[in-house]
Design goal:
The chain is 44% helix and 14% strand. It contains 13 helices and eight strands. Strands 1, 2, 3, 4, 5, 6, 7 and 8 form an eight-stranded mixed beta sheet that branches. A hairpin with a 5-residue loop joins β3 and β4.
Length: 283
């Protein structure tokens, strides 16, 4: 499987779908040499590379019941609706530790995408040269307007989905001839233009470059989906995506919906496993 990449979209709590797929991959001992993730995609990827079966379900679904996981009260304590300290510090370091040793020693290449808050462009971080993986994943997951940007080595970083929501081009640029892409929206979905631009400009302290990236995000996202559709038609990528419109919101707290989406991801991976293997080794 040389020159094969695994590309993971974000989507907040819709990442539970990706978590289900990766759980099946781990059960089959299927580990791709190159993994790139954005936001929630980077979160579930870290557990996958650390080879911790069952962890994504606990972190993404079981802990959502925690009063600080998603709450308006967090706006007063952390200026974020998501409990960023809980999710990116307490859980991975104390409550359900991420196996950082296995993660760092893994031969898998792991790239995390975040957005530079000064110019609105993507920044890519390699786990093998990054001294604080948790901080970079946190940065990649820091949603605009509902989370605080992260200061890392003098850079102001935000959600990677702003600048490169599905980093397939980065994976190809890095030399991967085949790519498995996990999307968290159904086929045919397209993002709509940003609403209330004037309000965002007035209420935020974001600079012009970052605001332009936010306002053009829908265009970048939709163009990337068109590009993926073209690659899929040419059999150059293998795409996993929910079959039906996803009812899970980015900040979903309904565990029944999250469990259903997680199980759907697992089921999709299981049902298409033979198809995936055939594509990997014969196409």
């Amino acid at each position: 499987m040389k020159k094969t990449g695994l590309v993971l979209e974000g989507g907040g709590m819709r990442g539970s779908y990706s978590g289900g797929i990766l759980e099946f991959f781990m059960e089959k001992d299927l580990y791709f040499p190159y993994v790139i993730g954005v936001s929630a995609g980077a979160c579930v990827a870290s557990t996958y590379i650390a080879k911790q079966k069952g962890r994504n379900k606990v972190v993404f679904i079981d802990y959502v019941k925690h009063p600080r996981y998603i709450s308006l009260r967090n706006l007063f304590s952390e200026k974020s609706i998501f409990g960023m300290n809980l999710i990116f510090d307490e859980i991975p370091n104390k409550l359900y530790p991420l196996d950082y040793e296995t993660l760092r020693k893994s031969k898998q290449k792991f790239i995390i995408c975040a957005t530079n808050g000064l110019n609105g462009r993507p920044e890519y971080f390699d786990k093998d040269s990054c001294d604080d993986i948790a901080m970079v994943i946190r940065a990649s997951s820091s949603l605009p307007f509902v989370s605080q940007p992260v200061n890392y080595k003098g850079m102001i970083l935000l959600d990677g989905g702003i600048s490169d929501p599905i980093p397939i081009k980065k994976s190809i640029q890095d030399g991967n001839c085949k790519n498995i892409i996990i999307l968290t929206r159904h086929k045919g979905y397209r993002k709509k233009p940003f609403k209330l631009k004037w309000l965002a400009s007035k209420l935020s302290n974001y600079n012009e470059q970052l605001l332009n990236a936010l306002f053009n995000r829908y265009r970048v996202y939709n163009e990337t989906l068109d590009y993926i559709d073209d690659l899929e038609a040419k059999n150059k990528v293998f795409v996993f995506r929910p079959k039906e419109p996803v009812k899970v919101k980015r900040m979903e707290k309904n565990t029944k919906k999250l469990i259903a989406l997680y199980k759907q991801g697992y089921k999709d991976a299981k049902e298409r496993y033979d198809e995936l293997m055939d594509w990997l080794y014969h196409c």
